[in-house]
Amino acid sequence: KTPLKQPATSNSALTEIQPDGQPLTTPTKPKEGLPAEPWTPTSNLKMLISAASPEIRSREQRRQLLNDPSEEHLLGEEYEKSHPSRKEKSLGLLCHKFLARYPDYPSSTDNSYISLDEVAEELKVERRRIYDIVNVLESLHMVSRLAKNRYAWHGRHNLPKTLQALKKVGENNKYTQQIQLIKRREYEHEFDLDGDRKEGMPKSIASKDSEMSFVELPGMEFRAASVNSRKDKSLRVMSQKFVMLFLVSTPQIVSLDVAAKILIGEEQLEDLDKSKFKTKIRRLYDIANVLSSLQLIKKVHLTEERGRKPAFEWIGPDVLPNTQDTKLETSSTTCSQAISEYIPPKEQCSKNLFPSRGKQSFTRHPSLIKLVKTIENDRRKIQSAPTSPVKRSASTDQNLSAFPSEMAQDPAIAKHQLEGQSKKEKENKMKLSRPASKSHLPLPEVAPKPEPLGSTAPCQLAALTQTLGVCAPGHTSVSPVILPHPHPGVSYAIYLQPSQAHSVVLQPLPCANVTGIKSVNSKVLNPITTEEGDNQIATDDPTKSVTAKERPPTTSETSPQRCLKRSQALEEISSIKRRRRDAESLDTHLTFFPSGYLIPLTQCSHGSKAGFSDKEKAEVCPAQHTAYSSPITGVIPVTGSELKAVNIPAFHITPLNIMLSPTSIAAAPVLGNSSLNSSNTSSPQIPASSVLNFTLQHIGLIPAGVQVPANPFLQHMPASSQAENVTYSSEKMSVQEEKVRKNRLHLADNFLSCPQPPVPKEAQEPQTVTENFFRTPGGPNTEPPLSAKSDGTAGTSPGTLYIPQRKLEVSED
DNA sequence: CATTCCCGCCACCGG
DNA sequence: CCGGTGGCGGGAATG
């Protein structure tokens, strides 16, 4: 109804102009015109949000009619025309607005109370919608019900505890297993089209968890006391369960359908009541939207066989496994967070984003907006692309550090800066910040689809792998890069599905920059992936193959791991079995990934996002997506790393001449400790110099590109280089830069994520190692290197390693 | 057509 | 019994 209305347009224009006025005037009721709400503090925020919000951004490509061939900036934005747009009424946006009203970390002094109808009125939405938001917030103990129409706002203060509690409960519920089971089941279905299959264990692990009711926090319950109603039903509980799923699963990614199945509680096989399932999904979307607004999760797409399926990735703070003292909790939560806590609550969001600039002006700054939009769009594209290849400009970070001036060019960078200035976490609210946050991981991730393996053994391998950072070898001149291991949640493996593989690889990236790389990768990978993947995967268990090869038996089946396995398996198989042409391709492939440094990444759970934030900034959001999308890339690196770690004989490796870098060495010990001891010693001698470079670069003392000499390893990669050249061609800036960039990209791409197994305690060791390693250069502990996280990224240069922010943080602590 | 998810009916329940 | 809550699912908007 009234899709386009002139009047509306006018209104909108006005609205836009108004600094605060809600950009969205009530569509339904034209009468009120623009209510000038007293949004003082938040108004700016809103604007920002609206501007930044992905939804709005593309918004229908805005009138094509109008054209605005060039610029746009404000103009483009201004006439949105679409008032009634559904997106503008989305729960996510509404939630943003809601959140903007309250400080993330309200000081005890300010008592913020929430009056539902008041809020509803102000936000101009039906009360019903507010309930949706409040209910999930309540599930996180960010608010508590005081009385009838009244809630108390606690902000994120309780978040750490709540998450911890939820995680604990989730573990008790054996959600991990349930997830596994469901995935396996799915997998089976897929594979055995016919269904049937004897099914090893159709019934789930009885988790009679049944409905656990609402998880309360120690300090909180009494609050609600009198008016509190028990028996909370769905949304609240559902929300908690949903969060639990993220907290317990290793790649902290949960697909909607899996979540729905688990939440339905029914595991009983397939009685998937279709309608029930649908309803559940609907609810999950509601919850997810709110959680997304809270920056706790973000939407991703798992590329799976048959297309992609919606899923969400946890991007919230890591929850420490062990509770220990309260103090710990608080502090542990990431330094940045802690810091943020103390930050003035008030301005939080938007303002912080652009501190240096006038906030308002900044907000409106056309270029900024544009950037945001662009980013968003890119991100979107990437995401949307079914099998989008990787793209992401790894270069971003480097550039930043190296050449600040260049920032302008890279949107990501710009963002980065912005964020950097402000406290990162805080601004999360803004959509702007969002993109940045996403990107934090430099490594591409692999989406895992655990199903295949069904097997059993828990995989420590994965853990190992994860633990170690895998380094993708740079190409040619590039110095070795170290990838920080993303933490558990961060990365995941992509499924390599046979079918997908092709597509993925082949498809060009939306992003120009990356494209080149991608294509290269694709070339190499394709052959293998495609064929092998299909055959292999379909046919046998990757695990088996792996094992045969020399893999440590223990591989587990975590989803990510599986991926790895698969990929590895593929590779191996291909190499061995399919020597024929495949072998060739393989070689190429191998070539492609010459050496890598393994760094032990600790999986420190503690890493806080804040740490990431830096990285995030550096990496544009798209990157992540990219990562996901490009399974291939990820696979390769992983393999290499794993191999090393495992001591796999690597014939594969051999050709490459992979050497163990210092990193690897460091890693070795870690590995041993962590779980499999397989190799440790195997590492060959590593040139000390490389290490130094590493460190130095890392620290930022040396420009990444510079360190060249050290890496002997990189030198070989004939095929790959060729590919690169070919693909890449096109224009280049300075050769060097380009190269670097490429490398980076490569690296990034390559870095696959290693899946992280849930290995709580062991992490410490690795961490320690890592820290020491890094510190060495710097000096005594202190965190000279990246010191502030902000620079970590910057410091990094092409060849440089990425240091995981977490580490830094950890070390700092 | 598939995915996302808004809208709002209407059952429930606390007061 | 009333009005606040919030389950629930149709079906519209989007992809």
TrEMBL record:
It comes from the Eukaryota. It holds the Pfam family WHD_E2F_TDP. InterPro entries: E2F, E2F_WHTH_DNA-bd_dom, WH-like_DNA-bd_sf, WH_DNA-bd_sf. One of its GO terms (molecular function) is DNA-binding transcription factor activity, RNA polymerase II-specific. Residues 1-43, 66-86, 418-454, 528-565, 754-813 are annotated as: Disordered. Keywords: Activator, Cell cycle, DNA-binding, Nucleus, Repressor, Transcription, Transcription regulation. It is found in: Nucleus. One of its GO terms (cellular component) is RNA polymerase II transcription regulator complex. Its main location: nucleus. Residues 418-430, 541-552 have a biased composition (Basic and acidic residues). Gene3D superfamilies: Winged helix-like DNA-binding domain superfamily/Winged helix DNA-binding domain (1.10.10.10). Residues 86-155, 230-316 form the E2F/DP family winged-helix DNA-binding domain. SMART domains: E2F_TDP. SUPFAM superfamilies: Winged helix' DNA-binding domain (SSF46785). GO terms for biological process: negative regulation of DNA-templated transcription; positive regulation of macromolecule metabolic process; positive regulation of nucleobase-containing compound metabolic process; sprouting angiogenesis. Belongs to the E2F/DP family. PANTHER family: TRANSCRIPTION FACTOR E2F, TRANSCRIPTION FACTOR E2F8. This is Transcription factor E2F8. It comes from Semnornis frantzii.
